[in-house]
Specification:
- Two copies of one chain form a homodimer.
- Chain A is α/β, with parallel strands linked by helices.
- In chain A, 35% of the residues lie in helices and 27% in strands.
- Chain A has eight helices and twelve strands.
- In chain A, the strands form four sheets. A six-stranded mixed sheet of chain A has the order 6-5-9-10-11-12, sandwiched between helices. Chain A has a two-stranded antiparallel sheet with strand order 1-2.
- At the A-B interface, helix 1, helix 3, strand 4, helix 6 and helix 7 of A face helix 1, helix 3, strand 4, helix 6 and helix 7 of B.
- Chains A, B: Belongs to the purine/pyrimidine phosphoribosyltransferase family. PurR subfamily.
């Protein structure tokens, strides 16, 4: 049977860890794959663990016992985080982004995997110690970000629809009033989409008054489920009275200045 | 200045490679990070490269020259691929999945990061040698899969909307006729969403007659752009006359049997 060097085992273990965030991988997976003793694999993991701390790139945890194993928990060094948030502020305040109606065009940012991956790490790492069952979002622009957070937390994504699709089976629909423009909107979710009694994190691209977030809280009540965390990329701080408490944002939008560009600051959560 | 052992360097290099698929990372990034000579880093990468081949988990390529460096290209061993496709066939033919109207309920599958990550590797690896500028999808169910493929190809995602949103600025809308039910539908895309003259890959969850795919081809013509590849998770082979050629699917749907379950086979592309 084939033998592997420590370098080779570390390469293989790293791939599996990074590709399965927040999932406990049993040590037997590696002892079998690399035809090595448990003590050998444990030493490999110790090297990996120390390097994660040294390089500030998240952490690797080992859990003992029968269901024990090793798992990778996403994270970012303070320096990298600072650089990323500054970069976000910079691109969001680019000149060409203000479109008629005084909206910020940010679709390209929300659909850029390099950016969304990092934003996902920031948001996911704040919820990592809670027992999250699902990450919930409402279509469309926040889906890639919500997907990243779900992946990093190792849970299923749930997407609430604006309409009612035949391919969803029985659905529950609620009407809600948006907090900023006071319009009535509908959102619906398939009965099959989540188990009753779940704990959910709601992720979205932009929060104005928080009407959508409150709508989600009410919709999830129909599934006997609760929202235990809310995370958005941008928060509009011009609307100071929010309809929800306890949310985190990565950057803050403070209106449009005289040069017709958005005024964007790092939010207090990631300074 | 801090020194790192080979094991530690490999741990750090692996993290950066796996998290940045299909992106060339300059060797200087690593020589600076680890305070090591280029020859040392080259040896580290050689170990990684060989291990990828040995374990059949994609590949690592080095390119020479000023813009040279190293990049990770996603892949899956034949065995893992076979297991994954069988697993997909099995869960898609579960009893409870047929919903009124004879649709397969597959939302949970399309929003499951563990499944979508693997499906993404299968589709992305077939387009990896083409010069892809964007991955395009149409909302909503295919978005996570399209996002994975975009991330693995190292390109931007573009999401075509069913409606017209104020936050998208100037949009181009087209009407198209669905291939199976002959309904007229609209799709629209922001003018800012992609550069003219781009090569795109279209990703979706399900293909019936291919009306949506043909609609995308026509929409992209308005941006002087072309579709150079189409990939779907499931293809309906009951509709044999497709409106588009040259597409790949992971599994085939061959109708519903007497036990009221979907008949699903591995497609010819991934056998």
């Amino acid at each position: 049977m084939e033998k592997y060097s420590r370098n080779q085992r570390i390469t293989g273990i790293m791939k599996q860890l990074i590709e399965n965030p927040n999932k406990v991988i049993n040590l037997n997976t590696f002892t079998e794959k690399f035809n090595a003793a448990k003590s050998t694999i444990s030493e490999d993991i110790l090297v990996i663990k120390d390097t994660f701390i040294k390089l500030g790139m998240g952490r690797v945890e080992t859990t003992l016992g029968a269901a024990g194993g090793v798992r990778y928990i996403c994270g970012m060094s303070k320096m990298e985080r600072g650089e990323f948030v500054s970069f976000l502020c910079q691109i969001l305040s680019e000149e060409h982004r203000i479109i008629p109606g005084n909206y910020i065009y940010m679709t390209d940012i929300m659909y850029n995997p390099e950016i969304i991956k990092k934003a996902g790490i920031l948001l996911a790492s704040t919820f990592i110690n809670k027992e999250v069952d699902y990450v919930v979002t409402v279509e469309t622009k926040g889906i890639p970000l919500a997907y990243e957070v779900a992946k990093l937390l190792g849970v299923q994504l749930v997407i609430v629809r604006r309409d009612n699709k035949v391919t969803e089976g029985t659905t529950v629909s609620i009407n809600y009033v948006t907090g900023s423009s006071k319009r009535i909107q509908t959102m619906s979710l398939s009965r099959k989409a989540l188990r009753n009694g779940s704990k959910c994190v709601f992720i979205d691209d932009f929060m104005k008054a928080g009407g959508t977030a409150r709508g989600i809280i009410n919709l999830l009540k129909e599934f006997d489920s609760i929202v235990i965390g809310i995370g958005v990329l941008i928060e509009d701080i011009e609307i100071s009275e929010k309809l929800v408490e306890d949310y985190i944002s990565i950057v803050e939008f403070a209106g449009i200045n005289e040069e017709d560009t958005a005024v964007i600051y790092p939010s207090k959560y990631f300074q």
